[in-house]
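User: My instructor asked us to take a sequence, write out its structure as tokens, and then describe one feature of it. I'm not sure where to start. Here is the sequence I was given:
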Amino acid sequence: MSALVLDAGALIAIDRGDTDMHSELHVARRAGMPVRTNAMAVAQAWRDSGGRQVRLAKALRDMDVRSIHEVDGRKAGELLAIAGLTDAIDAGVALPAGPGDRVYTSDPDDLRKLCGAAGNNAAVIGC
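Assistant: Let's start with the prediction itself. The structure tokens for your sequence are:
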């Protein structure tokens, strides 16, 4: 089964009430499609200490938020070297993507390079 994989830009779009991202989440959930991100993408999007990011908090409850471990860090570094890029958090978003997955990102050019370097054949979609 394919999944949605979200970067920080997609999480920020959810937080801002972007109707396209909310629609994608709704369709994915109705289809039983997993929605994934990683803890560092959450760190880029999360600024709430007072309950203001309600949309994002609600969406995160139903997501598979992956931790980043040493092995992941090494793999992300290898992807960055292959792709000629430097954003480790973007590489961490490309890692859990697989064939047929859709990666939603505010940086489609870099994520296409990273997914290509990972050989995962994921569809990268700008948001």
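For the description part of your assignment, you could build on this observation: The first strand starts at residue 4 and ends at 6. Try explaining in your own words what that tells you about the chain.
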